[in-house]
Design a protein that fits this description.
By secondary structure, this protein is α/β, with parallel strands linked by helices. The protein is 40% helix and 21% strand. The protein has two domains: 28-288, TIM Barrel, CATH 3.20.20; 340-410, Arc Repressor Mutant, subunit A. It is built from 17 helices and 17 strands. Strands 9-10-8-7-6-5-4-1-11 form a nine-stranded mixed beta sheet, sandwiched between helices. Strands 12-13-14 form a three-stranded antiparallel beta sheet, with no helix packed on it. The protein starts with 27 loop residues before the first helix and ends with a helix.
Amino acid sequence: MLFAAKKPLIAGRDACAPRMPALLLVAWYDLVTLKPAGLYIHIPFCRSRCSYCDFATGMYHAELAERYVRGVSQEIASWRKVKQPEFVDTIYFGGGTPSLLSPPQLGLLLDAVHSRFAIAAGAEITLEINPGSATPETLAAFRALGINRASFGAQTFDNNELARLGRSHTADDTRRTFRYLRDAGFDNVSFDLIAGLPGQTMSGWQDNLAEAFSLRPEHLSFYLLEVHQSTPLANHIKTGLQPQPDEDLAAEMYEVMLDRAVEAGYEHYEISNLCLPGYESRHNTKYWIAAPYYGFGCSAHSYDGGSRRWANERDVAHYLNLIEAGAAPVVEEQRLAAADLQAEAAFLGMRMMRGLNTEQYEAQFGVDIRKQHAAELARFEEAGLIEFQGELLRLTKAGALLSNEVFAAFV
């Protein structure tokens, strides 16, 4: 099954443009040559804990949030994993609920970023926002900081489903916050939607889609519910408080969404992501094309674009203790072998619906993937899960639904 778990240059600077970098302002054609990195900053605080959540999050407390912002700023300022100042063209505040921070707190983090990195003109700066978590005044202040993209956790427009998920917002909160975002000048908004919820019906899902498409966000991220062990939702299902999700129905929901999205003018550019033309998530695309990305904050992960990966301490208190003691918060490092790099290039490349360029793969690794995985590719092609279009190896619509089975052949 599909697994769950993403413009033009600004010539000058106005009130809503990203801050001028402290080190250098560079043109897009320079950045392509320099392989710009993305930055991820984890904000672990929430107003409530969703029943399905398995992320590194905890309850919001004002004093802890202030201490955490100072700690992350310190981590960014003292970061030495890459020696030279690196060019960056995407910044992503994820969580948790980053919009629980105040504009001055987010401004402090952006100041730290601009002091350490060279930021591209027109950089994509994304803030994850939960409905009802920010006022019109706060959203306008976020936009004035240069934040120009909102990733919006709508999940569903059914209040009963929201309650069963432990979400703290209502469908009206979603509609209202979306209006506030537009009024604040956000013209790049992404919705998250979840299918396959316990008790969810096809008619209910179609209502969700109709509402989402009527609002017309620039981007849609679609997830099939994953039930993680140790979450409240897993316990609810185990004890019979909620029904077992129907995977076959969820697959039908996926197909319906793709059909409706195409009719509404959206492009299916990655297994779980759709967008209006020109509004792909530039930050999330870095994960799929093996571009470098650097994470800050508790539980954040990083990749140097070559063979090194590392991850920060997951626990907030332990993370802050390390930072405040002047120690690095990294608790795990990994060197990827050649076989790992080849496998990841294959299945991450195939997550993109345009497909994996087999000629580029051979140029990078010196291996013809058609020969390297001849038996598996022949089997998947016969089953209608993949197709070749010139040098591109692509998932079909059926293959996208069974992508885990396809990708397992490369691991």
